[in-house]
């Protein structure tokens, strides 16, 4: 008797694409005499694939931490600079040896960074952990990155695929929810991280880094997270935060 086999998922490769600019900078830092672990750890926080690898490692069940880790910075502290450097080197090696890798989506890196900075700034206004919010923002389009890694159109809705990937990697439910529901309308957003991602996506678009998800106006975005400030002031703060964080990628 022949037993029918279910069709395999088209999203089989989960060693996510690293942005070429981030990969180039990782290689520069790895070749530094002192290893430049501090700069390298800061760089990891700028790339969704590198951040996902580090947070995944921190949540590996064999490490036995009492709580699941949501934030990249917390994960880096737990793992230590040496292990983070090894993880980054392993991920960047894919770019060196995989000549048939797909192209990185033009919009995804800048959009993810802008949303992450927006989440961090807005989280500080409402008392949410900034590290958790920033990391959720950076990973919110991990489903699109997974699709691109597998040669599938990243602009389609891959929220469930991204959320399922992070769930399998043992990330906290609140991060998984922030990824799964980030394209929902405002009325369908329940968790605080879901609302932060939706609001930050609006400000990312205002900064010239839009994504494929639906966005609201800046005033509506601030109402969504109950932040009572002028949109222009918040936008300027997000822009400053983004410039400060990305300085390491520019080598400044």
From TrEMBL:
Enumerate the NCBIfam families for this protein: HDIG
- Phylogenetic placement of the source organism: unclassified sequences, metagenomes, ecological metagenomes
Q: Which residues form the HDOD domain?
A: 16-210
What the entry lists under Pfam families is as follows: HDOD
Where does the UniProt annotation place the signal sequence?
none
PROSITE patterns in the cross-refs:
HDOD
Report what the protein is called. Unannotated protein
Checking CDD domains in the record gives:
HDc
């Amino acid at each position: 008797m022949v037993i029918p086999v279910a069709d395999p998922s088209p999203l089989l490769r989960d060693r996510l694409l690293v942005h070429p600019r981030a990969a180039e900078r990782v290689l520069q830092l790895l070749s530094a005499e002192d290893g430049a672990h501090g700069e390298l750890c800061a760089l990891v926080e700028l790339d969704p694939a590198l951040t996902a690898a580090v947070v995944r490692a921190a949540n590996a069940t064999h490490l036995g931490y009492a709580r699941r880790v949501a934030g990249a910075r917390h994960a880096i502290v737990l793992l230590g600079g040496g292990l983070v450097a090894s993880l980054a080197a392993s991920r960047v090696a894919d770019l060196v040896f995989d000549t048939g890798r797909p192209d990185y989506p033009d919009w995804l890196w800048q959009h993810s960074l802008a949303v992450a900075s927006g989440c961090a700034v807005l989280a500080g206004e409402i008392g949410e952990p900034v590290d958790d919010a920033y990391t959720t923002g950076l990973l919110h389009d991990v489903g699109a990155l997974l699709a691109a890694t597998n040669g599938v159109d990243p602009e389609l809705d891959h929220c469930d695929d991204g959320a399922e990937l992070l769930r399998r990697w043992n990330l906290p439910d609140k991060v998984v929810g922030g990824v799964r529901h980030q394209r929902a309308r405002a009325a369908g957003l329940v968790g605080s991280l879901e609302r932060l991602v939706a609001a930050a996506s609006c400000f990312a678009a205002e900064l010239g880094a839009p994504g494929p998800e639906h966005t609201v106006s800046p005033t509506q975005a601030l109402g969504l997270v109950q932040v009572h400030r002028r949109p222009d002031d918040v936008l300027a703060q997000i822009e400053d935060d983004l410039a400060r964080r990305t300085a390491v990628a520019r080598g400044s």
